[in-house]
Design a protein that fits this description.
about 25% helix, globular, four-stranded antiparallel β-sheet, about 70 residues, alpha+beta, 4 strands
């Protein structure tokens, strides 16, 4: 979404947030994740799983770290 917090932090469509401030998100509900981000305030670190295309028929997933300061 244009001008959203996600866009400001560099998230892209299809990204999967796997960590919020070093806490795994695998068992978090949407509400749990929202609570973590609100508690973090204006600075937080996200671990993001991103699909990266290398060639037309090949792709792989990478984990990237996004440090967000609003």
């Amino acid at each position: 979404v244009e001008d959203s917090t996600a866009e400001k932090c560099g998230l892209q469509e299809g990204d999967v947030v796997v960590r919020i401030n070093d806490k795994p998100t695998i068992n978090m509900t949407h509400e749990d994740a929202h609570r973590e981000l609100v508690a973090a305030g204006v600075e937080f670190v996200l671990g993001v799983l991103r699909l990266v295309a290398v060639y037309e028929l090949q792709s792989f997933q990478v984990i990237i770290i996004i440090i967000c300061s609003l």
